[in-house]
Amino acid sequence: MLHIEDIHVYRGHTYVLKGVSLRIAQGEIVALIGANGAGKTTLLRTISGLLHPRTGAMHYMLGADQPSHDLTRAVPEHLVQLGISHCPEGRGIFSQLSVKENLLVGAYLRRDKEAIQADYHHICELFPILAERSKQAAGSLSGGEQEMLAVGRALMSRPKLLLLDEPSLGLSPIVIEKLFETLIDINAQGVTILLVEQNAVMALDLAHRAYVLETGRITLTGTGQELANNDAVRQAYLGGV
């Protein structure tokens, strides 16, 4: 579904991604783990068109019988139309808008009004608290509720590929567990997920496959279980357990 080949990305004068290559198959949950500053957020921002590689290539395909799309210089609006949605670190909600208004912003490129309403009700089923607080200002929600809102807003564009950047950051263990259960449901409904996550234990337990990113380079890849059992990964990211 997504093929990234040897991309090199700078943020200003800082050389961040140094020849990153990875693949994501349709229907997978793929985790990307690594220390702070490794380049994980930069990689997601590059996939979603907010940054562009200096060299390398990125291609996106929705099926074997579909044409490949070159994402290397694509703009974010085009990527959303292709079915890629990015839920950023820090959530990025519109605090003065209501919960419902925030969700509808996620469908801003769509014109299918009946389907938009159906998707809105579906998001409220996934996250019932959002239905209860639909008229409430988004800035008044708790951290966990804001994360649910950010994920729901990303889903309102009907993505085929969902990019999630640190969804568990700052949340309580109970809320994290509920959020990850919902991600399994979202994936079961046909959404492919690329998950950047500091909580490596839960990320590797959730993921079909995973990559380790260290100082801008992919250093390890394997199934979630293989990396969870890797001694170096356990020592660096799983607390040595």
Automatic annotation (TrEMBL):
SMART domains: AAA (SM00382). Keywords: Amino-acid transport, ATP-binding, Nucleotide-binding, Transport. The keyword Chaperone does not apply. GO terms for molecular function: ATP binding; ATP hydrolysis activity; branched-chain amino acid transmembrane transporter activity. Residues 2-240 form the ABC transporter domain. One of its GO terms (biological process) is L-amino acid transport. InterPro entries: AAA+_ATPase, ABC_branched_ATPase_LivF/BraG, ABC_transporter-like_ATP-bd, BCAA_Transport_ATP-bd_LivF, P-loop_NTPase. It holds the Pfam family ABC_tran. The keyword Transport applies. Signal peptide: none annotated. Belongs to the ABC transporter superfamily. This is Amino acid ABC transporter, ATP-binding protein.
